[in-house]
Write a structure and sequence with these properties.
Chain A: One of its GO terms (molecular function) is proton-transporting ATP synthase activity, rotational mechanism. The complex is a heterodimer of chains A (75) and B (260). Chain A is an all-alpha fold and 75 residues long. Chain A is 91% helix and 0% strand. Chain A contains 3 helices and no strands. In chain A, α1 packs antiparallel against α3. Chain A starts with a helix and ends with a helix. Chain B contains 7 helices and 2 strands; from the N terminus they run ββααααααα. The N and C termini of chain B lie far apart (60 Å). The chains are: A mainly alpha (75), B mainly alpha (260).
């Protein structure tokens, strides 16, 4: 296998990371909704924490996009 | 079909405008680029928006309500994350939030219909990186000015057993040091990924339309419908990323201001 096709394969494999991060982001919002429906009074006060969790989960998916971009355009 | 291919990253090209490409200061090129132009446009639109709403009417009109909604939102964000002592960061967080929000949204405007090329300034790591380093520098300055060398106790959480300290300290230090990197990277990648996605889908629409009626209905029309949906999602992402940037800056400032 030559180096160019190995790069493109690696970039494609990095998309697995984006898919897994979607599980994480979905989990963050699902658990928040679950808790918010049990105790709607406390839900509004926790929205900041919801978005911190969302940002942390999302970042790891975006990193896999960065890996793909580096493999295609930089490496 | 290779000659009709749409290049998804061409939209991020930075080019000098108005023949300024030979401007130099001490050997560095300081050309007025399209990135600088769109940041200037963002600043002007932001100033017009805020100045137009700063009327102090007792019964606010729509414009004043919009501006007061944003200031109240940022004020509330600071109060719930830092407390009353967070009020002094209101100008910085408000400017940061509004600048990111406006430049995200201005980059999504369909100005290409009239021949202009909208450019998202926040889709470049140089811009978001500087914003992140600015936030991080404020955290460091406030932290060391307020707590002196006690600021290092941030890296040893309360109640850590003594044998654990040599392990916890480097972990907390590294997680603190990657903050500006992750802050800038998140905004830049979210913006860039969205624009690349839109460009790829528009490439599907164009080559699907060129490839005949069958392919047009099989691939072109679904891609176009998906594109409309992704555009709506991008508007949401533009808001969420601006909010997340402001929120995380508040959380980091809280560490410096209140130190556990």
């Amino acid at each position: 296998m030559d180096a160019e096709s190995a790069k493109l394969l690696g970039a494609g494999l990095a998309a697995i990371g984006a898919g897994l991060a979607s599980l994480g982001v979905g989990n963050v919002f699902a658990k928040f909704l679950e808790g918010a429906l049990r105790n709607p009074g406390a839900a509004d006060g926790q929205q900041g924490r919801l978005f911190i969790g969302f940002a942390a989960a999302e970042l790891l998916g975006l990193l896999s996009f960065v890996v793909a971009m580096i493999l295609i355009f930089v490496a | 079909m290779a000659e009709g291919k749409v290049d998804p990253v061409h939209q991020f090209t930075i080019e000098p405008l108005f023949g300024t490409d030979h401007w130099n200061i001490a050997g560095y090129n300081v050309a007025f680029t399209n990135s600088a132009l769109w940041m200037a446009i963002t600043a002007v639109v932001l100033m017009v928006f805020v100045a137009g709403g700063a009327r102090r009417a007792v019964v606010p009109g729509r414009w004043q309500m919009a501006v007061e909604g944003f200031t109240g939102f940022v004020d509330n964000l600071l109060k719930s994350n830092i407390g009353e002592s967070g009020r002094k960061y209101l100008p910085y967080i408000f400017s940061l939030f509004m600048f990111i929000l406006f430049s995200n949204l201005l980059g999504l405007l369909p100005l290409a219909l009239v021949g202009l090329h909208p450019f998202t300034a926040t889709s470049h790591f140089t811009v978001t990186g500087v914003l992140a380093v600015m936030s991080f520098a404020i955290v460091l300055i406030v932290g060391f000015a307020k707590h002196g060398l006690h600021f290092f106790s941030l890296f040893v959480p309360h109640g850590t057993p003594v044998p654990m300290i040599p392990i916890i300290f480097p972990i907390e230090l590294i997680s603190f040091l990657v903050r500006p990197f992750s802050l800038g990277l998140r905004l830049f990648v979210a913006m860039m990924a969205g624009h690349v996605l839109l460009e790829v889908l528009s490439g599907f629409v164009i080559s699907g339309t060129n490839a005949g009626v069958g392919i047009f209905f099989l691939a072109g029309v679904p891609s176009f419908l998906l594109m409309i949906g992704i555009c709506a999602l991008e508007l949401l992402v533009a808001g969420i990323q601006a909010y997340v940037f402001a929120l995380l800056t508040c959380v980091y400032l809280n560490d410096a201001e209140n130190l556990h």
